Write the structure tokens for this entry.
Amino acid sequence: MLSKKNIILGVCGSIAAYKSALLVRSLIKAGANVKVILTADASNFITPLTLATLSKNPVYTQYFEAETGVWSNHVELGLWADYMIIAPASANTIGKMANGLCDNLLTAVYLSAKCPVFFAPAMDLDMWKHESTQENIERLKSFGNTIIAPNKGELASGLFGEGRMAEPDEIVAFLTQELKKGLPLLGKKVLVTAGPTYEAIDPVRFIGNHSSGKMGFAIAEEFVALGAEVTLITGPTAEKTTADLLRIDVISANDMLVACTEKFANSDITVMSAAVADYTPVEVADQKIKKKAEDFSIQLKKTTDILASLGKVKKEGQLLIGFALETEQEETYAKEKLLKKNLDLIVLNSLNDKGAGFKTDTNKITIFNSAFAKTSFETKSKTAVAKDICAEIIKLLN
Ligand code: CTP
């Protein structure tokens, strides 16, 4: 959910400021871009160096940095953010935010930000209970800001009660849940396949193909961003993902068949973008095959067509989407595969189109639905193509 999201973390003067280091680390681990703003008091509790190192960005403390002559533009920072989190939010900063005061960079960015704002209060129990604090919090809620409620526990003062800032992991879990609300594919289970398969010849050789896995990974990540619970079954690839999904690594077409068959029954939407080998050696040599004869041939047998086998057991309400990679008579072959494999959509790539196919960062696709209605798209980045494919699938659901 937080992958590639721009987050401003505002840190106020509170002993809980030490937890902001862990919070930054968790946000970065979740794939977010983080910029930290410290109030003057916060710098007494945690150093800008710690947070700059963890966030991999300069830390902002004031409008104007005298030593460097750098002016921190609060409007630009506010507009950069997809989300703003103030954690710990002190009673003082909550009061300023509730009343439009902006005598420091953090509160000025808050006033400029158009994004959703979350705040995690941290203070002693009597400050927390005070009517002015509670009124200010109600005002912030009425502005549409979201509170991440403090916990009960031992406080820095030695007293016991409400006011302990939520733990960094709780804040990240809260954010993830909040961001999921209202997403179009929340609750949907999605299966995506990606990459090539490798068919072993002997312990050191295999038959493979040039698929990089980029398209399938982009599709899986887009489904996660839309709120789905995603299983990504991938052949050997250098691709990595920080998205919150279940990744299952396989090698051969048969491994992929076994993994897909197990996961398919539970999937609402399945997208087979893997370049599965159509043939595999009849026999796999136990030892490395030595070079002897001038000619050498390997006998191959057909693999199971995974997509077609899923199409046979597809139930009412399940959506099955396949790819067709063609070099000639593209539309005819794509439509044939759509029918033969019992698909709801087929995504056609033609290797004749510049910027389409394997290894590139771009793709050019045409989608056919089961009534053969055709939608063509321009050449785009694979991330943008993944968005188009998911948008077409959402149209089917509606
Ligand atoms: N596919 C599959 N299992 C296979 C081969 C292909 O699930 N053993 C899937 C691919 O993931 C893709 C679709 O079938 O979604 C079409 O793959 P493609 O290679 O274009 O076509 P094939 O059906 O293999 O036919 P051909 O190679 O003759 O074009």
